[in-house]
Write a structure and sequence with these properties.
single chain, alpha/beta, 2 domains
């Protein structure tokens, strides 16, 4: 029987993920696991445990609180030196996680180490290299260092929060590494739902996050907001008339995202929160 790793905690946020797509989590059976399930219930744990065959800490909320808040909640529950921040649709071998751990132990200046998601490498690259940006779909984190610079910005709901966090790392004294010789697969297609409501949530929050990111970096111009709002209203009306459903729903999601950002701005200006 393989000995359990006591240095790494696996943290995963779920949102309306079907049980049949969670069998991949068996790959983490020899680590501590903390799962946060949004818009779910306590009973889901029993069903998931039956599939996986090992115990894990389980938290849930009856509403969707967003990726930033749920991720921060999980990070606050970690009591090991490192944690693997990952997604349910990522496939990574146990040995690969241990190799990431070795790099993070050896490189004292490093806060994040990520595997290589590319199927093929065009040129021969070093085993690992320092980078200014990386894919945090699966990343090993030095928890103590992350606490020093701060977790995710909870003003973000979904999308762009990872980019802002990476910006914070780049402004700090810490480094990020991509391990080119350590492979992982992100089966993002399996998490992309055709559900109209889920797609609307994603599209609207991408637009909201885009504007919020510019605002946080003092790059946002009033003219950009007005222009984007009226452009999307025009194309929504035009495509609705032609009944191009997929396209007009995308425009509607953008309108919602822009209005959501304007409400955020209103609260900031008048209520200072």
């Amino acid at each position: 029987m393989t000995k359990k790793n006591k240095n790494i905690t696996i943290i995963i946020t779920l949102y309306k993920t079907p049980l049949k797509k969670l069998y991949k989590l068996i790959q983490y059976r020899n680590f501590k696991n903390i799962i946060f399930n949004q818009k779910s219930s306590r009973s889901f744990k029993k069903k998931l445990k039956k599939i996986l065959g090992f115990d894990f800490k389980y938290y849930y909320s009856q509403k969707n609180i967003g990726l930033s808040k749920s991720s921060n909640f999980l990070l606050s529950k970690v009591n090991t030196k490192f944690c693997l921040f990952t997604q349910a649709d990522v496939v990574i071998k146990e040995d690969a996680i241990k190799q990431l751990e070795k790099i993070l132990i050896y490189k004292k200046d490093t806060i994040f180490v990520a595997p290589n998601f590319k199927k093929r490498l065009k040129n021969k690259l070093p085993k690992y290299e320092y980078v200014k940006k990386l894919d945090i779909a699966c990343v090993l984190i030095d928890v103590k260092k992350l606490k020093k610079i701060g977790f995710f910005d909870e003003d973000f709901f979904l999308y762009w929060e990872d980019i802002l966090l990476i910006d914070k790392v780049n402004k700090s004294n810490y480094k990020m590494i991509v391990a080119n010789n350590i492979k992982a697969i992100h089966d993002s297609g399996s998490s992309t739902s055709n559900n109209v409501s889920i797609k609307f949530i994603r599209d609207s929050n991408f637009k909201y996050g885009e504007l919020l990111y510019d605002y946080k970096l003092f790059k946002l111009r009033k003219l950009k907001i007005i222009r984007q709002l009226f452009q999307n209203i025009f194309f929504f009306t035009f495509r609705l008339f032609l009944f191009r459903k997929k396209e007009y729903l995308h425009n509607l999601a953008n309108i919602y995202g822009i209005l959501k950002f304007l409400m955020f701005l209103f609260r900031k200006i008048f209520f200072f929160n």
